[in-house]
């Protein structure tokens, strides 16, 4: 989706109303950078957003493939947490903002239903705190028969 962003789209607004496309992409890269860095890996920089993203993605994949990585902890909001628990908020951020990017740029808005279901199960118990901190806006009622992807988008206040 990032590779499809045209040069004239970087200043376009996104469904994440406080960020344009460039700010949204920078935010996602910084959040995802926490994975390899939290596991002690360095992340190469790049001249473009696409290069920075590939560096973060590759470093995260390599760090998560290390033997025993899921028996470790890494920094979370409240201190060190098991790696698996630290990944869920980052997965949520990635899924939702990938959709935001696609919506803003006319790209592929598909969201994997299995990943969405996993994130939704993680987020639902935290509904009150997510709204009180401004992480998400008001929920949107999903249409009848909505799959987990649409339900997640609506839960986060987005209008698919």
Structural description of this entry:
This protein is mainly alpha-helical. 51% of the residues lie in helices and 5% in strands. It has 6 helices and 2 strands, in the order ααββαααα. It has a two-stranded antiparallel ribbon. Strand 1 and strand 2 form a beta hairpin. The protein is globular, with a radius of gyration of 16 Å. The relative contact order is 0.13.
Q: In short, what is this structure?
A:
By secondary structure, the protein is mainly alpha-helical. It has 6 helices and 2 strands.
Lay out the secondary structure.
Elements: H1 21-38, H2 49-64, E1 73-76, E2 79-82, H3 83-105, H4 113-123, H5 127-132, H6 148-155
Antiparallel strand pairs: 1-2
Helix pairs in contact: 1-2, 1-3, 3-4, 4-6
Structural class: mainly alpha
What is Rg?
Answer: 16 Å
Low-confidence stretches: none
Strand fraction equals 5-15%
Residue share in helix: 40-55%
The overall pLDDT average reads: 95
- How many strand units? 2
Largest sheet: 2 strands, antiparallel
What series of H and E elements makes up the topology?
HHEEHHHH
What keywords describe this structure?
160 residues; mainly alpha; 5% strand
């Amino acid at each position: 989706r990032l590779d499809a962003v045209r040069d004239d789209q970087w200043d376009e607004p996104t469904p994440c109303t406080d960020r344009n496309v460039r700010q949204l992409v920078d935010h996602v890269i910084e959040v995802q950078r926490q994975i390899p860095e939290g596991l002690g890996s360095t992340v190469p920089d790049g001249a473009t957003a696409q290069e920075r993203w590939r560096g973060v993605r590759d470093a995260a994949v390599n760090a998560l493939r290390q033997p025993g990585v899921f028996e470790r902890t890494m920094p979370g909001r409240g201190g060190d947490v098991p790696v698996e628990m630290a990944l869920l908020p980052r997965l949520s951020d990635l899924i939702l903002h990938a959709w935001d990017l696609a919506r803003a740029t006319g790209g592929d808005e598909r969201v994997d239903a299995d990943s969405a279901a996993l994130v939704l199960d993680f987020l639902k118990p935290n509904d009150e705190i997510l709204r009180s901190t401004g992480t998400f806006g008001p929920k949107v009622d999903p249409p009848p028969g909505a799959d987990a992807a649409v339900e997640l988008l609506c839960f986060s206040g987005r209008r698919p």
